[in-house]
Each structure stands twice: as structure tokens, then as C-alpha cells.
């Protein structure tokens, strides 16, 4: 292969530009993994991080000077870093200044790791820190499913082409995590080709890393089946790089790996990384262009089948701002914005409407003719807009149908207080 073809292959594999939509979703998976790994350790601060804690340090990860400096931390500084971590972890989760938030959250993670590696210093934690570093060196994982996306003015920000290099490195990371795990199983002490570790795990000890799952006794009484299952795991792990990167076997490999992680969680007490991080990282192998094509087909289908009309006050800048944010969240094209001022008789839109109702609150008219107003619009949109899915428990919580409309009416009446446009300073657009 000549230099020109090698350079062309390198550019195609690492230097291309694609949508960051899947990477934005992966940011959420990373945030959840970090949260479920670190936050539980805060429940016992006296035993884990304060001056009363039993501590171990990882001098193979940190220099002695760094460890010495961190070990001098007074208890008030530990409490400060707890609040610091929780704040920026939440910002990173929701994607508010996502890169800066991620970097500050990662700094807090390193602080707690240097303070006491006994509780969070595991191999899976080291893998997580590598992943977190790769995520935080990029500035575009807030392109969608984030507050940063809502701060943009571009409705189709998820289509924006971004460097694919970091996503490729994350693909390589998980593929070779599998490969080296499989390699360790056939080269280290306790070689899986000679021994039968699954049979041992499901027989001894009765309590430990193994859960009491439904088929435990079945497998525990069949050593040959356990042995060949172990061989199958090794084969899957060693072949993972080839199966994941070859387009013809990619979706098969993702499915098998998903099943593998489900079985791990069901049968063994494993770190959160195996549940929250690795399965979403596998989805980074899905070509973003294929996902964009699927979204395009969904939008086209919704357009052909009829969109829901969202009726708003086009002379109210606060209303315009809200509609813009809803359209950014409308990934599948469910909504069509309609300024009621363009109609002399708003009953053309729906028989139940009049100028006063349209002026006082938003309305949503579905293709079936069903109409929703105010708070109940957002309750309905929670089922249609992916970025609002996390709010479903809030909007459908018992009693929300009573409190929600009151909150909406207060916001609508005082919307000039919530917007910085000069024309809305005195609530003129509401009168």
C-alpha cells in the first residue's frame, strides 16, 4: 500500500467529520457512571475521606508530592470538594457549559482518588478516568440532549459536523478492553483454558461476587457447560475488535456484547462501569450518518402524517424564545409553530379558541384535533420530545395536574420577569 492510500485510509478512519449526536448521548452515560461510582462514597464521609478515615494511596498513579499535598486536606476542604463535585457533576449531566463542567468534575474525581484510593481505586475506575479524559478534551458533547444545545440559535444543531477522532479513540478503547481481558484469561495464572472459573464462582463461595440468580443451581451442577461458556466468553472478547469494526458483523457484535453485560449484571456484583458505561460506549460504533438518516425518515413521516400545531403569541419575545427551544428539542419534527396573530379569526385553528385564550397561554392542536393548553402542553410534549423524557416522572407525578397549571399561569402572567428583551421589560407584550 503506497503512502497516498495509507494517508487516505488514515483520514477516513480518524480525521473525518460526522454528527456528534451519539457522542452527546454518551456524555450522559459517562455522567451517570461517574455519579453512581462516586456519590455513594459520600454517604460515609467519616470512613472514606475525612481525617477519621482509613486511607490507602495509589503511588503508581499519583506522584508522592501530589499525594502528600492532598493528604493535608482539612475536613472543611473535603466538604467543599463534595459540594464542588455534586455541582459540576450535575452541570455535566445536563450539559450546561459541558466541557468546563466536565473538566472541573474530573478534577474533583482526581482529588478524591488521591485522598483515598481504598474505596474508588479499582481497575474499572482507572478505565473510567481515561474515558472521562477523552470526553473532556472535546467541546462538542453538548451539541444535543443538553442545556448548551438550547442556548444555541440553530434548530438543527445535532446535524453539525464535528471531528470524529475522539469517538474513534473511544471505540478503540472499549474494543481493546475486551481483547486484553480475553488475553489475560488465557495467559495469566488461573488460565481459563485449563481451569473452570465460572464453575467455581457458581459453587464457592455461597456469598461473594456471585449473586443468587435464578439459574445458579442449574449451572453450578454442570461443570462442562460452565467450561464451554467460559471458552465462549474468551472467544467473544478476543474477537471483539474485528467483529465491532467490521461493518458486516458490527450489529451482531453490539448485540452479543449487550447480552454479555446484562448477564454480568444479573449474575455478578460488578462495578457500575459495566452497566452504565460500556453498553452506551458500544453504541458509538453505530454510524452517526445512519442515525441522521433514520431521524430524517421519522421527520418526513411526521410531516406527511400531520404535525401538531403549537399556537403562540408571535408578538411576545418570551413566547418566541420558548418556541425556539421547543423546536430545537423537536428531534423528530412533531411540531409546527403557528402565530395566532396571522389569523383574523383564530377559530379557524380550533373552534374552542379565541383571542383571549391564545394571548394568555400556548396551545397544542394535535393532528386528531385534540387540543391542550398551558401546562398540559408540556405534559404532552414530554412523550414526544426526547430531551423532555427525563421530565416525564415530574409532569405525571400524582398532583402535578393541580400544581402544574397554577405554576404555568404564574409564569405566563409574569413572563416579562423571566426574559431580558427590552420590549418585554414592562410586560407590554402580555397586555
Residue fraction in strands: 5-15%
**Sequence of strands across the biggest β-sheet:** 4-3-5-6
What is the structural class? mainly alpha
Helix content: 55-70%
- What is the mean predicted local confidence, pLDDT? 85
What's the gist of this structure?
This protein has 431 residues and is mainly alpha-helical. The protein has 21 helices and six strands. Helix 10 (165-187) packs antiparallel against helix 13 (223-245).
Task: Describe this protein's structure.
- Helix content is 58%, strand content 5%.
- It has 431 residues and is mainly alpha-helical.
- Among the domains are: 16-163, no CATH class; 306-424, Glutaredoxin (3-Layer(aba) Sandwich), CATH 3.40.30.
- The strands form 2 sheets. The protein has a 4-stranded mixed beta sheet.
- It is globular.
- The protein starts with a helix and ends in an 18-residue tail after the last helix.
Topology:
Blueprint (H helix, E strand, L loop, with lengths): L2 H12 L2 E3 L1 H18 L6 H4 L15 H8 L3 H20 L3 H18 L1 H4 L2 H14 L10 H4 L10 E3 L1 H23 L9 H5 L14 H5 L2 H23 L1 H21 L5 H10 L5 H18 L2 E5 L4 H13 L5 E5 L15 H6 L2 E3 L5 E3 L1 H7 L10 H4 L4 H14 L18
Parallel strand pairs: 3-4
Antiparallel strand pairs: 1-2, 3-5, 5-6
Quickly list its features:
431 residues; 6 strands; two-stranded antiparallel ribbon; 21 helices; disordered C terminus; 4-stranded mixed β-sheet; Glutaredoxin; mainly alpha
Amino acid at each position: 500500500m503506497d503512502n497516498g492510500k495509507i494517508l487516505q485510509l488514515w483520514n477516513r478512519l480518524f480525521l473525518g467529520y460526522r454528527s456528534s449526536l451519539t457522542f452527546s448521548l454518551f456524555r450522559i452515560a459517562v455522567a451517570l457512571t461517574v455519579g453512581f461510582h462516586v456519590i455513594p462514597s459520600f454517604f460515609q464521609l467519616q470512613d472514606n475521606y475525612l481525617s477519621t478515615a482509613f486511607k490507602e494511596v495509589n503511588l503508581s498513579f499519583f506522584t508522592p508530592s501530589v499525594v502528600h499535598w492532598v493528604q493535608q486536606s482539612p475536613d472543611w476542604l473535603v466538604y467543599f470538594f463534595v459540594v464542588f463535585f455534586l455541582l459540576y457533576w450535575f452541570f455535566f449531566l445536563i450539559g450546561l457549559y459541558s466541557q468546563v463542567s466536565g473538566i472541573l468534575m474530573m478534577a474533583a474525581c482526581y482529588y478524591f482518588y488521591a485522598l483515598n484510593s481504598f474505596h474508588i481505586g479499582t481497575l474499572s475506575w482507572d478505565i473510567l478516568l481515561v474515558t472521562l479524559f477523552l470526553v473532556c478534551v472535546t467541546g462538542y458533547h453538548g451539541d444535543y440532549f443538553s442545556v448548551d444545545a438550547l442556548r444555541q440559535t440553530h434548530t438543527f444543531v445535532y446535524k453539525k459536523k464535528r471531528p470524529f477522532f475522539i469517538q474513534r479513540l473511544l471505540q478503540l478503547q472499549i474494543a481493546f478492553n475486551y481483547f486484553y481481558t480475553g488475553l489475560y484469561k488465557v495467559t495469566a495464572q488461573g488460565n481459563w483454558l485449563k481451569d473452570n472459573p465460572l464453575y467455581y464462582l457458581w459453587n464457592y463461595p455461597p456469598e461473594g461476587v456471585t449473586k443468587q440468580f435464578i439459574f445458579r443451581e442449574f449451572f453450578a451442577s454442570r461443570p462442562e457447560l460452565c467450561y464451554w461458556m467460559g471458552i465462549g466468553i474468551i472467544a467473544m472478547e478476543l474477537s471483539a475488535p474485528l467483529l465491532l469494526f467490521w461493518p458486516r458483523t458490527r450489529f451482531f457484535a453490539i448485540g452479543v456484547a449487550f447480552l454479555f453485560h446484562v448477564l454480568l449484571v444479573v449474575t455478578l456484583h460488578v462495578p457500575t462501569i459495566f452497566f452504565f458505561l460500556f453498553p452506551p460506549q458500544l453504541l458509538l460504533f453505530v454510524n452517526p450518518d445512519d442515525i441522521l438518516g433514520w431521524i430524517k425518515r421519522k421527520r418526513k413521516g411526521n410531516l406527511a402524517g400531520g404535525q401538531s400545531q403549537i399556537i403562540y403569541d408571535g408578538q411576545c419575545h418570551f413566547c418566541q424564545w420558548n418556541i425556539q427551544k421547543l423546536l430545537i428539542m423537536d428531534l423528530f419534527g412533531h411540531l409546527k409553530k403557528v402565530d395566532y396573530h396571522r389569523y383574523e379569526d383564530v377559530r379557524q385553528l380550533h373552534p374552542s379558541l379565541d383571542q383571549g385564550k391564545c394571548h394568555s397561554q400556548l396551545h397544542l392542536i394535535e393532528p386528531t384535533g385534540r387540543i391542550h393548553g398551558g401546562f398540559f402542553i408540556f405534559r404532552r410534549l414530554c412523550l414526544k420530545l426526547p430531551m423532555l423524557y427525563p421530565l416525564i416522572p415530574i409532569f405525571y407525578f400524582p398532583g402535578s395536574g393541580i400544581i402544574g397549571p397554577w405554576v404555568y399561569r404564574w409564569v405566563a402572567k409574569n413572563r416579562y420577569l423571566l426574559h431580558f428583551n427590552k420590549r418585554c421589560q414592562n410586560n407590554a407584550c402580555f397586555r
